[in-house]
Give the backbone structure.
Amino acid sequence: MSQGNAFSTRRSLTRDEVAARVIPILAEQAGMAPEELRDSHSLIDDLLYDSLTVVETVMELEEEFDVEIADDAADGMRTVGDVIDGMCRLLEDRAD
């Protein structure tokens, strides 16, 4: 069972709670330590993600949070901060 399924998502998670679950996924895909990531890091330019890495990351985030990330939402997630904020929005929308 993934951590995402173990958490109740009926309440909105704080940004810090979402970041604590997103950053390890992004860091692992980038081959970096989580504490090295900054909100301003670009997935493509700074973390050197390619299209396959983006797809794999989206799949991991979907599993972690038990959500479906639409292509247009994924396209808007260009930085670490964008990913965290995007996941917050998806989780808030689902809670409504």
Observations:
- The chain has five helices and no strands.
- Residues 3-95 form a domain with the Non-ribosomal Peptide Synthetase Peptidyl Carrier Protein; Chain A fold (CATH 1.10.1200.10).
- Helices lie at 3-6, 15-30, 51-65, 71-75, 80-95.
